[in-house]
Amino acid sequence: SVDVSLEGSLILCRQVDQPGMIGKVGSILGSQNVNVNFMSVGRTAPRGRAIMAIGVDDEPTKETLQRIGEVPAIEEFVYLKF
């Protein structure tokens, strides 16, 4: 499970739990000048399925979201703005 506050802008990713996922997504956002204000990850089991919640200060461009979706271990994701 992941605890998040449903306010502002949020990216939710369902993914395979593997090393480097936080860094990969964080690097994509940083390279596009999107500031992360929080990140939380919950998983079912080590190396199993995981959910990553990322709060952002800036709205990611379609290109940025497309790059996140191209990360092989990410099964699906959604961008939400509250």
TrEMBL record:
Transmembrane segment boundaries: none
Annotated ACT domain residues: 10-82
The record's listing under InterPro entries reads:
ACT-like_dom_sf, ACT_dom
What Pfam families does the entry give? Answer: ACT (PF01842)
Task: State the protein's name.
Answer: ACT domain-containing protein
